[in-house]
Design goal:
This protein has 433 residues and is an alpha+beta fold. The chain has helices at 10-17, 22-28, 33-39, 42-53, 69-79, 85-105, 107-110, 119-129, 135-143, 175-189, 227-230, 253-267, and strands spanning 159-163, 166-172, 197-203, 210-214, 220-223, 233-235, 271-275, 278-282, 291-296, 299-307, 321-331, 336-338, 341-343, 346-357, 360-368, 376-377, 384-392, 396-408, 411-412, 417-426.
């Protein structure tokens, strides 16, 4: 075999080898000493490390420096040799996406992520819980064993929302806490051991919210308002997206769920917010089509909603669902222009909401103020944000308007005008967080 390559120069041989995968390179190295030397070229292994593992420096799975990219690649393959390699690559990419976003936008949360669990840790966990983790979930925990309890309660990786006295912020639990939380809540609810449900994420605030992984079918579920009474839950990932969780081509809901969360963060669909000097990941959508934007007379209003699964009642005859919505209003830098005049300020006086379920109007509400406040807007100031909620029997939408007074309500400088709130959806999302 090697004789047919005698006339091939080193550059040509390098180009040929750069077109094959790492497994082929390893076999080629066994052919002859020349191929072995060529296959050891570290630039080849640097390409494998970059393409498959996202490494730009040689490092082993514990992030210790390696003497070469070849050694680093071999360390990764050895450490995760018991798992399908494409799954390992996919899980690493999932965690890398989350960590890279956190490093830029929320390093405090990044520091709460724990080191990966060992094989021994996972084996002991499965024995204690009487479950067999879906393979993708097991690999996820090999890379990161959840979060340390944040010093501040709003540093959850999954994040949350607030409205009135309801505050949710969800953390990804470490294995040790999964054991205690699962035993506590399943004993309270009377679940049998055969249910194979484990609590993988929960809110660290006074408002309860629990996410469960079913270790048999691989689905992630979230508890509703009836969770403690009869175990009612909602699936968090489209059933059609799931595949065999214990075979070779694994794709369980936990992996899909975290991948989708990372996609939403990186694309800017969701992001961080800061209230009362406390920063958190906020689940209200920030981009269309789930976030609407309207500008009227210089007043910009953005609005979006999120399903509140922990407050839903799927057995209810009327309002099965609860949606929280967030409204962000601001005055653009050029100020308020109404009725042919320009004003430096304007103040909200009244609100008007039209709420639809399945295209049918179910509520037409008018009244003064928003949550008891009359926000005064100045050009270029940060957005005034408020959150509220609405129960509804089926998916629908909200639209409406705010009545603003140029100047101040108690010192008007012109006639009132209506600022539109463009229609935004109340939808049951494919992925629930």
């Amino acid at each position: 075999m090697s004789s047919s390559f005698d006339s091939v120069g080193e550059l040509e041989l390098h180009l040929i080898l750069s077109c094959v995968d790492a497994a082929t390179i390893a076999r080629v190295a066994c052919v002859c000493s020349r191929f072995k030397d060529s296959s050891s070229d570290d630039s080849l292994w640097a390409a494998y490390c970059a393409d498959e593992l996202g490494l730009d420096e040689p490092a082993d799975p514990r992030d210790y420096p390696a003497p070469s990219f070849k050694v680093a690649y071999q360390a990764w393959r050895t450490t995760f040799g018991m798992y399908p390699w494409p799954l390992v690559v996919r899980v690493k990419r999932c965690w890398d996406n989350l960590k890279s976003w956190l490093a830029i936008n929320f390093p405090e949360v990044l520091r709460t992520l724990r080191e990966g669990a060992s094989e021994e840790d996972l084996d002991e966990f499965e024995r204690n819980m009487g479950v067999k983790l879906p393979l993708p979930s097991r690999v996820l925990y090999r890379f990161c064993d959840g979060q340390e309890q944040p010093r501040r309660k709003l540093w959850g990786l999954i994040g949350g929302y607030s409205f009135y006295d309801h505050l949710v912020n969800v953390c990804l639990l470490p294995l040790s806490q999964i054991v205690s939380e699962t035993r506590t809540i399943t004993e309270y609810m009377g679940f049998s051991g055969a249910s194979r449900l484990i609590v993988i994420a929960a809110s660290t605030t006074y408002s309860e919210k629990y996410f469960f992984l079913n270790c048999v079918n691989g689905q992630v579920y979230v508890g509703t308002s009836n969770l403690r009474e009869d175990g009612e839950m909602m699936p968090c990932v489209p059933e059609a997206a799931l595949s065999s969780v214990h075979g070779y081509r694994q794709q369980d809901a936990m992996l899909l769920w975290l991948e989708e969360h990372g996609r939403r963060l990186k694309s800017g669909i969701i992001g961080t917010c800061q209230e009362f000097k406390i920063k958190s990941i906020n689940l209200f959508p920030q981009l269309p089509p789930n976030c609407s934007t309207a500008v009227t007379c210089g007043v910009q209003v953005r609005a979006s909603a999120v399903l509140v699964p922990e407050a839903c009642d799927l057995q209810g005859f009327e309002d099965k669902y609860l949606f929280a919505y967030s409204v962000r209003m601001s005055l653009l830098p050029d100020g308020c222009t109404a009725h042919g005049c320009t004003y430096s300020t304007c103040q909200l006086f009244r609100r008007h909401w039209i709420i639809r379920a399945n295209e049918n109007v179910v509520n037409d509400i008018s009244g003064e103020a928003v949550i008891g406040q009359y926000p005064l807007l100045f050009p270029g100031d940060k957005e005034f944000v408020y959150e509220s909620c609405t129960p509804i029997k089926s998916p629908g939408s909200i639209e409406g308007s705010f009545t603003f007074v140029p100047g101040r309500v108690l010192d008007p400088r012109g006639d009132p005008f209506e600022a539109a709130v463009a229609c935004f959806p109340l939808e049951i999302p494919e992925y629930i967080f």
